[in-house]
Automatic annotation (TrEMBL):
The keyword Transmembrane applies. SUPFAM superfamilies: Outer membrane efflux proteins (OEP) (SSF56954). GO terms for cellular component: cell outer membrane; efflux pump complex. This is Outer membrane protein TolC. Residues 304-331 form a coiled coil. GO terms for molecular function: efflux transmembrane transporter activity; porin activity. Residues 1-20 form the signal peptide. Belongs to the outer membrane factor (OMF) (TC 1.B.17) family. Gene3D superfamilies: Outer membrane efflux proteins (OEP).
Amino acid sequence: MNVVSLTATLVLVTALSAFGQTPVASTPTSLSQLLAEAGANNPQISAADHGVRAVRQTVPQVATLPDPKFTYQQFSVGSPKPFAGYTNSDFAYIGVGASQELPYPGKLRAREDVAERDADTKQAEVEVTKTSIADAVKADYLQLAYLQQTLGILRQNESVLDQLIQDATTHYQVGQGMQQDVLQAQVNRTKIVKEITMHHQQMGEIQAHLKGLLSRDQGSPDIVTEDLVETPIKHTSDELLAMIRQNNPRIQVDASSIRRQEAQLASAKREGKPDFEVGYLYENTDRKYRDYYMFTFDVRFPRKKRVDAEIAEATEKRSESQQTLNAHLQQQLAEVQEGYVKATSDEELLKEYREGLVPQSDAAYRATLSAYASNREPFVHVLSYFTDLLSLRLEYAQTLVDHEAALAHLETLTGATLR
């Protein structure tokens, strides 16, 4: 067996894929580029933006006086025919006038406040949509990066395993090994090939979903990610928790909803005040008689039962919004704490893989490989250490993507830039 060439191959594999770093032919696209593209092109975000602009147009509608009314009258005397008596009776006339409803002072301003708070809540919901899309893009990107890098690990280790199969076959042919060794190595190679096939399938599914989020054509070139690298946590748990009230999109929606309900309550109380209507009518009775001039002033008194019910409804909705905020706040705080614990635990685990498990497993594999070359170890031990080393490298990559995904979700929850 050519131990030198095999060891050189192993060194190459170790250098390129011990922690999932794989060279790629295509130019990688950064996550920040895809987030900007999603923000500009995603149809859900665009639809939400149009919704906000539509709601903003309700503000001038409710803040404007009711439409004025123009009146035309024709009063006949002696006959139902039009203009009967107009020239011979001082009661027949043609009248023109106008009237205007005047809500009680402050009512329009109160309604305007409600509409503005509605628009603010809608705007906050847009931010929830944007962060939701961004969170989905991050999740797809990180998973795609994991699959692309572990695919490199699998392919490189498939090449090493091919070399091991060749060496085991040579040993068997010269009577220094067993056919079972070759068969076992081939079984392991089949498992790697199966993993590679599954990786391709998963990558295709994620590519399709990610292109959908970006509003790209499904036939466009596949996205190549940058290599995953560990991002250290720079904030304490208390700092992240403090960001929730101010930056969390869901909390901002709830806070805006409370302000909306407070404005609605103030408006409901104002609706109990009377409204007015003024009108003026000019009546022409032909030039032989004196004209008539009529001024009207009407007062509308809202029914107390209806107004009280509106006030009670607004009060209950304000309490509902407050309790919703409290519930969502506790949920978001718990998610941040869980994410922080997950990220810090993964950091410790990554260090253990990087500084302990992977190097030790690699050393054990090399030692066993050398012993096998000298016929001092059975091939099954070489295959076992090879499998262990491959598993540890894949586990490292999985822990790394879990760590980065936890940080990405913390960004969504806190509004901070952590990666």
